[in-house]
Write a structure and sequence with these properties.
There is one protein chain. The protein is built from 12 helices and 10 strands. The protein has 306 residues and is an alpha+beta fold. It has a 5-stranded mixed beta barrel. Strands 8-9-10 form a 3-stranded antiparallel β-sheet, with no helix packed on it. α6 crosses α12, α7 crosses α12 and α9 runs antiparallel to α11. The longest helix is centred in the C-terminal third of the chain and has 25 residues.
Amino acid sequence: MKVDIKAALVKRHDEKVSGSVYVRSFRYKTGSNGKQFVKGILCDQESIIGFVVWSETIEEFRVVDKEKILTISGRIDTWNSNSTIVLESVKSDAYGYTHKDFLCGYDGHELEEEFYKFLSQVNPKVKQLVNKIVVGDVKERFFSEFAAKRKHDACVGGLANHTIKMLRLAKTMIANDKRLVAYSDVIYVGIICHDLGKIRELYMGDYVKNSFTTHREYGCEMMYKIKKDIINLFDENFFYHILAIIRGHHHIYDEKAKTIYAYIIHLIDMMDAQVTEFMDTINTHNCKEKIDEEKIIEHDGQIFHY
């Protein structure tokens, strides 16, 4: 059975804990005695708790340190009212749990249904191209990966959910301004591809090796692999516009949006990400009432009035 992290957080010092856990993140450290140890975080759908693996158990942990789901036994260590699990036994999980059993998120089947329903209503060539891009492992990861580590849609299926919301916003913009109709294909494909590189930058919301190159570069690599397909369905100009969108959709540093389409997608991206993050903030903080009845919320030193 899974470790009940919420219950573990209130256990007494030295109480025993055992069961299946999800390793949210961890890192190796070196103590003052020169010995290595591990510190990290375990999570379930409601709570998180820190864990530590001391040197006597570290080789056992190292055997499975690439796996996210483990079966552990250990004890609670409390210090300054904070609880940590000291892992005394670590092995690969044998109970068939998946990340969905530990992480909150969106229903992948519902996301798929809405995504392909949207594609059925646009230019068939867009659907043809997307079916060449979002296929196999890419498809599985697209509908399960986080959109971000901590901010907007930072949960299972967040990447697809963020993308679908952007497609809805784009459809409304195109309906509201007929001048955009001629560019709808590149806008829709650009939105679907703009964050696709996150399936290589992240794994269940954690940054992976070489993620410093960012999802923008990974996304461009993915497009180069199907360059011929994109050109055959559209043209070379279309292909390079998609690259420009992927590279410029953050509109920062030296990778600013260099085309109208890249900048439009940047605006749509920021609108969804910032509003979603703001609403998440409201949901996790208590709003205060001022004398003039204006509600405010404080987050990371910033005051929001609404």
